[in-house]
Design brief:
The chain has helices spanning 59-73, 126-131, 133-136, 140-162, 201-207, 247-267, 270-276, 292-301, 314-326, 387-396, 405-408, 425-433; strands at residues 19-32, 35-42, 45-51, 80-89, 97-108, 166-167, 173-174, 185-189, 192-196, 213-221, 234-243, 289-291, 334-338, 351-357, 360-365, 367-372, 375-383, 418-424. The chain has 453 residues and is of the alpha+beta class. It folds into two domains: 8-108, Nucleic acid-binding proteins (OB fold (Dihydrolipoamide Acetyltransferase, E2P)); 134-441, 2-Layer Sandwich (BirA Bifunctional Protein, domain 2). The strands form four sheets. Strands 6-10-11-18-17-16-13-12 form an eight-stranded mixed sheet, with helices on both faces. A hairpin with a 2-residue loop joins β1 (19-32) and β2. α4 (140-162) packs antiparallel against α7 (270-276). It is elongated, with a radius of gyration of 28 Å. The structure holds one RNA strand of 78 nucleotides.
Length: 453
RNA sequence: GCCGCGGUAGUAUAGCCUGGCCUAGUAUGCGGGCCUGUCGAGCCCGUGACCCGGGUUCAAAUCCCGGCCGCGGCGCCA
């Protein structure tokens, strides 16, 4: 069966008189006497289909249309239908154009009532929405977030390809934790204990010794006890790693990624932004950099009780971003915190200079976080490319270099200096699509309490 | 894991503080009716709910206790 020969958005008043087939979902039905309007929706939009009895029809035709009108007015919302109709220019119709219905085929009748309202008259809690995600995603505002994320992904890919990066896919089933710390997801693997990758970190580093400029957009798993609007047990990580580069080089790549994504969303994503009523960000380059030391001092001034070299929590970052915003030291809400204390960064982070913070000498590192307001969007660093230094860092963190031998041994055979970053894609959509919860930037989010749907 | 708030038809809400007038209101949906230009159509009739267990009381949606579930904040989180 031929279901459609045009998409709904392609129907224009200029097609007056043309017969077309469209397929989609029954978005609304309005019956006015012997006249019935059906609003049909596909992924491109909606169109009004009018069913009426032709005035000059013979009795047989009249009876046929009566049957159709009866059928249409009893259709349940969200039923799937194919409609054959004639395009009619009409100022009374919503887009100045409608279809005069000739035939309707019900492809799948929907049960009612629906678990949530698709037409947008009654809103639903996030829990209801996620529990009924396949139907929730029929709402344009729900779909808009995923469409904007797709646009962001395309933009990132295109830009990195332009910079001679190669897209890679590293293993997602791994033998042991890459860095310790985060809670791993265990899996069985041919009778052995294995885990789902929490990051492509170590593999992407190894690839800099061959492919040099690599990136990956893929899933990562963390079983943290983190039950917040900004954590997922399964999230999409955008990772790059660059040979012969340091953290300043990769920060430049990162800020260009942010700039290009926000520009693309503002321009190409306008239709979806309008649907969710979100104002696009204005990101200007460079994105301001503030050192950890400066941030620490600001927070100390604001009355936070912080040890020198201590990591920042959410309340700290909320305050810090508020201060920076006030001083105009953010760009569309984004800012870098650079030169973190080495001790609060992972073992593969290259050490930098020393500095005195709060009267105490602290070993810094060539590292950065990119934040948007209080939210950590990305973090990265120059990496250590000397085996000996890696071994020392592992030991300092109580990790056993032997269990990292599969990774360390390749540093003996020509590992170049390199740097990179990782970015949470769903977190990036918080500023880009104005969502309050990263779950909304996930098709079927996995979190501490959701495994279905 | 800790703290706070919440749980009323399919969905979203009012009622709870100050127990009785709740036979639990409204919107949307659903069933039926009227209407040939609606566009969140309108109007009329109907349908459907107090998370679970215990307690207080003459009387509990309402107050108390426990549980379960949800949301937010924090913690945890290269």
């Amino acid at each position: 069966m031929k279901y459609r020969d045009v998409l709904i958005a392609e129907i224009t008043p200029e097609m007056e008189g043309k017969e077309v087939r469209v397929a989609g979902w029954v978005h609304a039905v309005r019956r006015i006497g012997k006249l019935v309007f059906l609003i049909l929706r596909d992924f491109t939009g909606t169109i009004q289909v009018t069913f009426r009895i032709p005035k000059d029809a013979d009795d047989e035709t009249k009876e046929k249309y009566k049957q159709i009108i009866k059928l249409v007015s009893s259709l349940s919302l969200e039923s799937v239908v194919m409609i054959r109709g004639v395009v009619k220019r009409d100022p009374r119709a919503p887009r100045g154009v409608e279809l005069l219905g000739k035939e309707i085929v019900v492809l799948n009748e929907a049960k009612s009532p629906l678990p949530l309202d698709v037409s947008g008259k009654v809103d639903a809690h996030i829990d209801t929405r996620l529990a009924n995600r396949p139907i929730d995603l029929r709402r344009p505002e729900s779909q808009a977030v995923l469409r904007l994320m797709s646009l962001a992904t395309k933009t990132i890919r295109n830009y990195l390809y332009d910079l001679n990066f190669v897209e890679v896919f590293t293993p997602k089933i791994i033998a042991s934790g890459t860095e310790g710390g985060a809670q791993l997801v265990p899996v069985f693997y041919f009778g052995k204990q294995a885990f789902l990758a929490q990051s492509p970190q170590l593999y992407k580093e190894l690839l800099t010794s061959s492919l040099e400029y690599v990136f990956e957009i893929g899933p990562a798993w963390r079983h943290e006890e983190s039950d917040t609007p900004f954590h997922l047990a399964e999230f999409i990580s955008v990772d790059i790693e660059m040979a012969f580069a340091d953290y300043n080089d990769v920060m430049k790549v990162l800020e260009n990624v942010i700039k290009r994504v926000s520009d693309a969303i503002r321009d190409e994503g306008k239709r979806w932004l309008d649907i969710i009523k979100h104002e696009p960000l204005e990101v200007k380059l460079p994105i301001p950099r503030i050192t950890y030391k400066e941030a620490w001092e600001i927070l100390k001034n604001e009355g936070f009780d912080l040890e020198p070299g201590e990591d920042f929590g959410t309340p700290e970052l909320r305050k810090l971003s508020e201060v920076l915003e006030k001083e105009g030291k953010t760009s569309g809400g984004f800012y870098f915190i650079v030169d973190w204390p080495a001790d609060v960064r992972p073992f593969y982070t290259k050490r930098g200079k020393k500095d005195v913070i709060g009267g105490k000498e602290i070993d810094l590192s060539e590292s950065f976080d990119l934040n948007w307001k209080h939210l950590e969007i990305s973090s990265g660093s120059t990496r250590i490319h000397k085996r000996k230094e890696l071994e020392e860092e592992l030991k300092k963190r109580g990790l056993n270099p032997e269990s990292f031998e599969w990774y360390l041994r390749w540093f003996d055979y020509g590992m170049p200096p390199h740097a990179g970053w990782g970015m949470g894609l769903q977190r990036l959509m918080v500023p880009m699509a104005g969502i309050q919860n990263v779950r909304l930037a996930s098709t079927f989010p996995r979190d501490m309490k959701r495994l279905i749907p």
